[in-house]
What we know:
- By secondary structure, the protein is mainly beta.
- It has three domains: 16-103, Roll (2,3-Dihydroxybiphenyl 1,2-Dioxygenase, domain 1); 118-256, Jelly Rolls (Sandwich), CATH 2.60.120; 263-374, Jelly Rolls.
- It is 7% helix and 40% strand.
- It has four helices and 32 strands.
- It has helices at residues 3-9, 25-35, 281-284, 369-374, and strands spanning 18-22, 39-44, 51-56, 59-65, 73-78, 90-92, 98-103, 118-120, 129-130, 136-139, 150-156, 160-161, 167-169, 173-180, 182-187, 194-197, 201-203, 210-215, 219-226, 232-234, 250-251, 254-255, 257-259, 266-268, 274-278, 290-296, 311-318, 321-325, 328-332, 337-339, 346-349, 356-362.
- The strands form eight sheets. The protein has a seven-stranded antiparallel β-sheet with strand order 8-30-27-32-26-25-24. The protein has a seven-stranded antiparallel β-sheet with strand order 9-10-11-19-14-17-23, with no helix packed on it.
- A hairpin with a 6-residue loop joins strand 2 (39-44) and strand 3 (51-56).
- The chain is elongated and about 90 Å long.
- The chain starts with a helix and ends with a helix.
- The mean pLDDT is 93.
Amino acid sequence: MDEIAIGEIQATIQTAEIVIPCRDITENISFFTKKLGFSVAAIFPADNPSVGVLTGHGIRIRLELGAEPSTHTLRLNCDLTKIAFDDGEEVKAPNGTTILIKEANPPISIPPEDQSLVISKISGDASWKTGRAGMLYRDLIPNRQGGRFIASHIKIPQGGPVADYVHYHKVRFQMIFCYKGWVKVAYEDQGEPILMKAGDCFLQPPEIRHRVLESSDGLEVIEVGCPAEHETHGDLVMTLPTGNNTPEKVFGGQLFLYHDSEKGAWAPWRHEGFETRDIGITDATTGVAGARVVRSAGGTQTPVVTHEEEFLFVFVLEGELSVSIDGSTQDLEPGDSIVIPRDTRFALTNCSSDVSFLEVTLPGAFTTIEQAAASG
């Protein structure tokens, strides 16, 4: 059957069934209905059944009389607080089907800290991979800090409508910073779709439903999240926008945040000669994380400091700077990034007058060891 003919099938599909062989129709129908809660949708022939169609929990199973035992696995996502099973426990159906018991809504797994120095250069061997909805992804932390953090440089070269769908992420923390261009996104209960332009930022709290609608040519964003490997789920029911605007709504202990760079205020940074525009993520996450844009206010370098925090990520937006680390110097230009681990002596040097960079930290109230000591 050629590809065109296969595509024509789509409009004619009535139902879909998983075919599972069994040697005894009656015994297996009894197991799937009485023990697993499926219902009989069809059974035939009546006098000596050889086919039984069962429905339940969002699927249809077609039991067919056959000699070979089933090698299928049926995963049941359950509320394990209400049954005497452990996560991952297996049960065998009479026909050999493996019934895998899993927790329906497991807690987010945050890998232990595994900090290391990571420098990502936009030039040279920078590689882009096609990801969800056709977007291009550049991995800024290939080692993922042991799986704890991910930072991605994402771009859409050709603008227009985006082939996205309503979805959400199971995360501890996730933010999107617009580096170049603009993008329009609809968020659950946040009013009409929001246009995020260069310099703006979204904090996407855990499990907020959202959908990317359209973008400009040459859109580029920086996405930072924890943990690195997190689940993305489609929502087949919700339509966005919802018609509601409730900015006070809490998602996983956090608030949705849209930071409009044109309304942001600049204030002195923690190092003299620089100023910062705080994005507001510290308050929205109740201290879990923080993000800010930093620019030179006449300064060309910072003192040598160390930190003992969970995460320090810097992405260069404009201009140039160098990072001096334990006696060696690394030059950074727009599009470059660096992760600086704790207990590492570092300083920013050779900062151009037009330099600006995005700084993301966990926790939000980020302080160096030297600052903490000075404050007593």
